Structure formats: C-alpha cells, structure tokens
Amino acid sequence: MTSTDPERPVILGVLALAEGRGMVLLQERLAAEIDEVWSAITDPSRLAAWYALVEGDLRLGAEFRIFVQADDWEGSGRVMACEPPSRLSVTSRESEESWRRGRGVAPFDESLEVRLEPDGDGTAITVEVSGLPLGPLAAYGAGWQIHLENLAGHLAGRPRPDSEARWAALVPAYEAQAAGLR
User: Fold this and answer.
1) Could you read off the pLDDT of 62-109 as tens digits, one per residue?
2) Which of 38, 49, 107, 134 has its CA 20 to 30 A from that of 182?
3) Residue 32's closest CA among 118, 159, 137, 143?
4) Domain boundaries defined on the chain
5) Across the strands, what pairs with 26?
6) CB count, 10 Å around CB of 159?
7) Which of 68, 133, 143, 139 is nearest to 106 (CA)?
8) 3-state SS of the chain: helix, strand, coil percent to 5?
9) Along the chain (182 residues), what's the average pLDDT of each consecutive run of 10 residues?
10) How far apart are CA 31 and CA 152, in angstroms?
11) How many Å apart are CA 56 and CA 65, to the nearest integer?
12) Does CATH place domain 13-176 in 3.40.50.150?
C-alpha cells in the first residue's frame, strides 16, 4: 500500500521513454475487489469523488469531457478500449482554454491505460500514461501517483490528503528518475 508520509514517500511510479515521449508506469495493490475498483474508475459520479468531473460515458468509442480541479486542467477524450472489469484505455487532450491559463506545455495527446487483476481480497492495478512531454515528466509522475493514492483513499473511505504536501514530497524522487533518462 502507498505511504502518504511526506517524510518517507513510497514511489509507485517508474518514468521511461517511449517513441521519444515520456511515460509513467505505476503499480499498486488496492484493498478493494475488482468490481469496486472498476466502478470507481468508470462511473462519473465516483470519479468526481477522487479524481475529476467527467461528462460523458466511459464505454468503447465514447467521447467525454473532463475537468481535474486539483490541477485546473480541462480537456476531452475518447475511450479506446473498455473491457470490464479489467482494462480501460483512453486518449485525452487539454483544451486550448486550459492551456492558456498558464500550464506551460502546449496541448498534446496523452494515452492512459488502466489494467486491473484480482489479487486475493484486493485488486492489482497498473496505470500507464504515455505521450507525455519530457520537460515536466517528473511532475506527471508525481501527479499520477497522487491520483492513484487518492483512488486508494477513496476506496478505503478516507478523505483526500493535502496534495501540495504530497507533491513536495514526491517531486524530488521523480526528478531524480527523470534526470537519469536524459
């Protein structure tokens, strides 16, 4: 399980390069059955509790709009694969309006794949995010880890922790990984 102790952060992610772009790969074991995790990542009302506001349906071929309040990020996406309860793959792109608010990186296409497997009384989750710009790759690693930790907390009935403190604890470790890629 993740440790949200700012003094001793557990790093769940590995940064990598794929086709000249950045990639974040995270793996964790969640203390919830696979159907519960699937619901938390595909039901818009559940997503709003731990990640983002999503308008639209998360089924194969469907388009959706998303607003990640913690990151002040909004965009749109399409579901590329939906295999309940084991695999969800989407692409997304930040809106021009969101980008103009000062994100610093021009909009780009991002791919997200989530794979779930039963693991005893819990679920093993793998999150792979690709197509990321290399400059802020460490920030994406820390950010996606925080999202995964928020999912684990949501499933356990815990409120969201202080993201700023968590960010400060995680970014240096992800920066060290990113430096090793260049």
Assistant:
1) 999 999 887 788 999 999 999 999 999 999 988 877 666 665 667 788
2) 107
3) 118
4) 13-176
5) 13, 127
6) 7
7) 133
8) 35, 35, 30
9) 59 94 97 98 94 93 92 91 98 79 73 98 98 93 95 94 90 95 79
10) 8
11) 7
12) no
Alpha-carbon distance 51 to 150, whole Å? 7
Whole-number pLDDT of residue 1: 46
Cβ 50 vs Cβ 150: under 8 Å: yes
pLDDT at 104: 63
CB 100 within 8 A of CB 129: no
3-state secondary structure 66-85: EEEHHHCEEEEEEEEEEECC
Strand partners, 122: 119
Contact 171, 178 (CB under 8 A): no
- Using the structure block, give the residue that is written with the tokens 């009935």: 157
Where would I find the H helices in 30-121?
34-42, 44-50, 96-100
53 with 66: CB under 8 angstroms?
yes
DSSP state of 9: P
Contact status, residue 110 vs residue 131, Cβ threshold 8 Å: yes
Tokens for 4, please give them. Answer: 């949200």
